[in-house]
Amino acid sequence: MKILIVGSGGREHALSWKISQSPVVDILYAAPGNAGIGQVANCVDLEVQNLPELADFAQQQQIDLTVVGPEAPLAAGIVDAFTNRGLNIYGPTAAAAQLEASKSFTNQLLHRHGISDIRFEVFDEPKPAKAYVRRQGAPIVVKADGLAAGKGVKVAATIQEAEAHIDRCLVEGAYGTSGSKVIVEEFLAGQECSIKVFTDGQTVVPMVPSQDYKRIGDGDTGDNTGGMGCYSPVPAVSEETFDYIVNRKIRPTVEAMAEEGSPYVGTLYAGCILTEKGPELLEYNCRFGDPETQVVLPRLDSDLVEILQATVEGRLAEVDVHWRDERCVCVVVASGGYPAKYEKGKAINGLDEADAQDGVVVFHAGTARQDGQFITDGGRVLGVTALGNSFRDARDRAYKAVELIDFDKMYHRTDIALRAVEAEDR
Ligand code: GLY
Fold first, then answer.
1. Residue of 372, 369, 376, 196 lying closest to 272 (CA atoms)
2. Do 355 and 301 share a structural domain?
3. Same domain for 298 and 218?
4. From the CA of 61, how far away is ligand 1's center (Å)?
5. Residue bearing the CA closest to ligand 1, atom 5
6. CA nearest 193: which of 212, 208, 221?
7. Is 227 in the pocket of ligand 1 (CB under 6 A)?
8. In terms of residue numbers, what domain contains 77?
């Protein structure tokens, strides 16, 4: 088979790494890929938003299956563009991708079908939005309706913070059309986790749960990032909680999408929160998580290509999906300064030594190659990932591998998966 992966981050390296292990794969392409992905795939210089050229490439190369990493091309209709040309592609249509691309669409769907009763209102004018915030009080959550690269959601501790975010979206236009509507939503407190599923629109096959660390600093301090590390499984997610989220939230959502004429096919990512009153859905994403894919796929014992193909062909019910019992920990290594200003082009040393450690795989998120040397090329640079028989084991392996890596102004958190080790020790 010939497979094309669309994207260039750590998630896409993890997808390429797993897909390249499949016995049915002859050639793997990645557009645009990165230097790490280039070790297992042929990188093609095409940007993820360039839908016509991506489809031209898939047609010319007779690609059997395209797998899409990021949300932007999905929301822009890459699946529609490919299927219109008779090309096989894994992911939701633009209509189904609204589950991530429009928060008002999702909240309204979930309420219409009795899947969620979280309090919320949608506004396109600042005055009534602010009046609602004042009536509800803080803490409160204000979300830009559309895609905003993870920056559109504000958990406001005060009414002033909520009002400022309303202004950012509706008055200043900081998120363009993505912020032309805001959702003001009830605040929920608790530990967050995510559960992703494969679905062909009917059958739902859950993946193992994971938890990521969104803040830049140890102890969950500082600015929000794309994710500074993660682990799987999640001790805080009991079997009962897992079943509740899959059967009472995710399956009914997949059924609701089919009932409303937009069957959801692909990976559905449920961002959840474990509140005192029980688990709740915070959001859906229409794709694999990043960096969560880096800890989920190493635990997958089955052939990923077989699962993806069966999903696209509507026969997911025929596939047996098996997971390893091992724990997995990923520590993200970033450029100093991220998520604000940072420098690129720093030589990265120690990658081979780190990769050679027992149970370790180093996924590249933002790297390039210059004169045969790997260099930094992004804010998040690497996802140093390790499997182990316990969280302590997996965590020790991941951090030992991180210590072998070196580049100028390298930064990482030091507390990834510590709470999982503590939970396992209890
Ligand atoms: N790590 C969060 C996400 O992939 O959206």
1. 196
2. no
3. yes
4. 31
5. 289
6. 212
7. yes
8. 2-91
11 within 8 A of 289, measured Cβ to Cβ: yes
- Per 3-state DSSP, the chain is made up of helix, strand and coil in percentages (nearest 5) of 35, 30, 35
Statement to judge: residues 226 and 132 lie in one domain: no
Torsion angles phi and psi, residue 292, rounded to 5: -60, -35
Report percent pLDDT > 90 for the chain: 97
* pLDDT above 90: residue 16: yes
> How far is residue 43's CA from residue 299's CA, in Å, rounded to a whole number?
26
Phi, psi of 219 (to 5 degrees): 75, 20
Q: Which atom of ligand 1 is nearest to the CA of 289?
A: 4
The tens digit of pLDDT for each residue in 239-269 reads 999 999 999 999 999 999 999 999 999 999 9
Any domain includes 331: yes
DSSP alpha helix (H) spans, 171-318: 239-244, 251-259, 293-296, 304-312
Domains of the chain: total? 4
Q: Could you tell me the CA-to-CA distances from 15 to 30, 272, 287, 335 in Å, in that order?
A: 10, 23, 12, 23
Residues 277, 301 share a domain: yes
* Crossing angle for the helix pair 103-112 and 251-259, to the nearest 10 degrees: 100
Residue 270 sits in a domain of what CATH number? 3.30.470.20
- In terms of domains, do 313 and 220 share one? yes
Same domain, 199 and 300: yes
CATH at residue 161: 3.30.1490.20
Q: Are residues 205 and 308 both part of a single domain?
A: yes
**Residue-averaged pLDDT of the chain:** 97
Pick the atom of ligand 1 nearest to 291's CA.
Answer: 1
Of 150, 180, 210, which residue constitutes the final position of a domain? 180
Indicate whether 151 pLDDT > 90.
no
Q: Exposed, middle or buried: residue 131 (CB in 10 Å: 0-12, 13-18, 19+)?
A: exposed
324 Cα: distance to centroid of ligand 1 (angstroms): 22
In a domain, 107, yes or no: no
| Prediction pTM value | 0.97
What's the pLDDT score for residue 130?
97
| pLDDT at 150 exceeding the cut of 90 | no
Instruction: Tell me, yes or no, whether 60 lies in a domain.
Output: yes
The DSSP bridge partners found for residue 143 are 153, 183
195 alpha carbon – ligand 1 mean position (Å): 11
Residue 102 lies in a domain: no
Q: Which of 317, 302, 287, 293 shows the shortest CA–CA distance to 202?
A: 317
The protein residue with its alpha carbon nearest to ligand 1, atom 4, reads: 289
